[in-house]
Amino acid sequence: MAILVDMTGSESRLDAIKTDFKRLGVSDPVWLPGEDYDPASIELVLAWKPQQRDWSAYTGVRLVQSWGAGVDHLLDAGFPADWTVARFMGQSLKDRMVRYVCAQLSNWQLDMPRLVQAQNEKRWDWHDGRWGEQVLILGLGELGESVAETLVVQGYKVSGWSQSPKKLNGVESLTGKTGLNAGLAKADYLINLLPLTSATRGLLGSELWARCERQPVVMNVGRGASLAEDDLIPALEVGQLSGAILDVFDTEPLAAESPFWAHPNIWITPHIASISDPSDVIRLAIDNLRQVRAGESPRYPVDLSREY
Ligand code: NAP
After folding, report:
1. How far away, in angstroms, is 48 Cα from ligand 1 center?
2. DSSP per position, the chain
């Protein structure tokens, strides 16, 4: 068998992935796009925003393994409809997302930038904090569920919105438009953990902000294009929202000209909330390939026609 690693990433990162496959006991050749390999020999495609579009010569592919949890980057990759696709998921990814969300909520409540500035100026800047306890999580999947469960333990009141109803201890499950409206009306914090699909593109926009009653802080850790970027600053200016903590953007890296950088109530991180651990992804890819070869379904399979 052979493996194709078709990923947007620096050369050193791609070389590290090759080395990781070896370290985990895979002796089969690992190829990068542009190298001199036979497409028919490729059995596993490890992909992140793949460049390849014509897969007609890749007659032996058994599995496409997404490097990340999201699969929006694969929707226009042109894979034949009968290929098996799986996405990355694992405890490390959940833990990292939970830590990011909890840290940013705490940072917001303590107004950490203000405290860092005060320390730089050797000023004792005691303040009341910005407390709020009602959280609405948009998307109660693998990551949303982990975040919800931790926030409940931390004493937050948590609601979660998803397509299908959920049963999670201490978490209010909301569905449909009525459920979304009820959650928006009482939220102090909105955390987006929806996948990017045709239904969620631009969803976080003026229509939603008009239905918020408690000037929530929005945290986008799902996908950038779920946020209608042009609607954000107006919503902050009129007081529909108090702030925005953004890890993902429609275009990444965020352009230097974006007004988001300089806005006092917008915090920006560079798509870093929960990074896929390379060894965990490669381990899952190897296990999944084994399962597919044995005629079984891989772990975390994806039906691309459903978009997530
Ligand atoms: P997941 O397990 O597929 O869960 C998605 C959730 O969204 C499910 O609860 C689903 O409802 C719900 N949903 C989907 N479409 C919906 C719609 N139209 N209306 C209402 N609910 C809808 O996804 P995940 O693994 O938790 O990951 C979520 C996203 O996080 C990924 O797609 C990725 O974009 C993003 N992510 C970001 C980072 C980062 O570093 N910032 C890292 C990893 C992942 P059902 O449960 O009813 O299907």
Report:
1. 17
2. -EEEEEE-S-HHHHHHHHHHHHHTT--S-EE-TTSS--GGGEEEEEEES------TT-TT--EEEESSS--GGGTTS---TTS-EE----HHHHHHHHHHHHHHHHHHHHTHHHHHHHHHTT-----------EEEEE--SHHHHHHHHHHHHTT-EEEEE-SS---BTTEEEE-HHHHHHHHHHH-SEEEE-----TTTTT-BSHHHHTT-SS-PEEEE-S-GGGB-HHHHHHHHHTTS-SEEEES--SSSSPPTT-TTTT-TTEEE--S-SSPPPHHHHHHHHHHHHHHHHTTPPPSSEE-GGGT-
Does the pTM surpass 0.90? The reply is: yes
- Among all residues, which ones are annotated catalytic? 223, 271
98 lines ligand 1 (CB under 6 A): no
Write out pLDDT tens, residues 64-112: 999 999 999 999 999 999 999 999 999 999 999 999 999 999 999 999 9
Q: Kindly give the distance from the C-alpha atom of residue 195 to the centroid of ligand 1, in angstroms, as a whole number.
A: 4
Q: Is residue 238 in contact with ligand 1, taking CB distance under 6 Å?
A: no
Protein residue with its CA nearest to atom 19 in ligand 1: 163
Q: Which of 95, 147, 171, 194 to mutate to test the pocket of ligand 1 (most atoms within 8 A of CB)?
A: 194
Q: Residue 199: which pLDDT band, with cuts at 50, 70 and 90?
A: very high
Q: State which ligand 1 atom lies nearest to the alpha carbon of 141.
A: 4
Work out which ligand 1 atom sits closest to the CA atom of 145: 26
Answer yes or no: is the C-beta of 141 below 6 A from any ligand 1 atom: yes
